[in-house]
Amino acid sequence: MTFKICAVIPGRGASEVLNLIEKAEKQRADLLEIRLDYLRERSQLEQIIKATKLPVIATNRPKDQGGMYAGSEETRKSLLLKAANAGASYVDIELGSNRLREFTTHCKTIGMKLIVSHHDFVATPSLKKLDSIFKSELETGADICKIATTAQRLEDNLTCLEFQAKSSKKHATICFAMGNLGRSSRILSPAYGGSFAYASVKFGKETATGQLTIQEMRRIHTILGVT
């Protein structure tokens, strides 16, 4: 079994993004998440996406969801669609987004694959609550359902992994806990059926607390015998 790793690309300018993409490719990343909310200048978005042959996830995370985007919701979504038209393989859209069904329907119409995500920045909900969130994501037509919680204790990793094992038998899912106490769930989520794990290209480029680097992930996976 080989675990897939998605390298998160949070560059501020096009040159930095392209440099991070090159580093991610050299480190054998399987996918790339281009964080549009970090980009100051988006005129070169098509060039950025076409610079790699790896599958690209376009994410434009608003500030209230832990991202950097502070503009209008209409513009935020239009940038995601622009990335889709430029060749991105997936668009990540938050479950709580306004007029979500209208957006997901449009994405489906143009053949775009969807990651519908939910982030809990306070705690890790119960399995019952996770199941409820999962059901809501499925109802949107998500191709991949993503739930990221926050670990307040080590046992929260077990909750995420138990949910991951159960949900992945029904649909493509990613579930892990953020925070330093949630690193175990980040590492082991693919072993429990998660579609892939997120990792930073290098130290200092993490987009969430507890995010490991690609090299750290690869090293641990080697120890586990899954690379």
Key phrases:
19% strand, alpha/beta, globular, TIM Barrel, 8-stranded parallel sheet, 227 residues
SSE layout and pairing:
Blueprint: E1 5-9, H1 14-26, E2 31-35, H2 45-49, E3 56-59, H3 73-86, E4 90-94, H4 100-109, E5 113-119, H5 127-139, E6 144-150, H6 155-167, E7 173-178, H7 183-188, E8 197-200, H8 214-224
Parallel strand pairs: 1-2, 1-8, 2-3, 3-4, 4-5, 5-6, 6-7
Can you offer a commentary on this structure?
With 227 residues, the chain is of the alpha/beta class. The chain has a domain at 5-115 and 181-224: Aldolase class I (TIM Barrel, Alpha-Beta Barrel), CATH 3.20.20. The protein has 8 helices and 8 strands, in the order βαβαβαβαβαβαβαβα. It has helices at 14-26, 45-49, 73-86, 100-109, 127-139, 155-167, 183-188, 214-224, and strands at residues 5-9, 31-35, 56-59, 90-94, 113-119, 144-150, 173-178, 197-200. α4 (100-109) links the parallel β4 and β5 (113-119). The radius of gyration is 16 Å and the shape is globular. The mean pLDDT is 95.
Helix count, per DSSP? Answer: 8
Structural class: alpha/beta
Overall average residue pLDDT:
95
Q: Summarize the biggest pleated sheet.
A: 8 strands, parallel
- For the termini, the CA-CA separation is 7 Å
What is the CATH first-level class name of the domain at 5-115 and 181-224? Alpha Beta
Principal-axis shape equals globular
Instruction: Tally the beta strands.
Output: 8
CATH architecture of the domain at 5-115 and 181-224: Alpha-Beta Barrel
Q: Can you say what the CATH homologous superfamily of the domain at 5-115 and 181-224 is?
A: Aldolase class I
Instruction: Indicate the CATH topology of the domain at 5-115 and 181-224.
Output: TIM Barrel
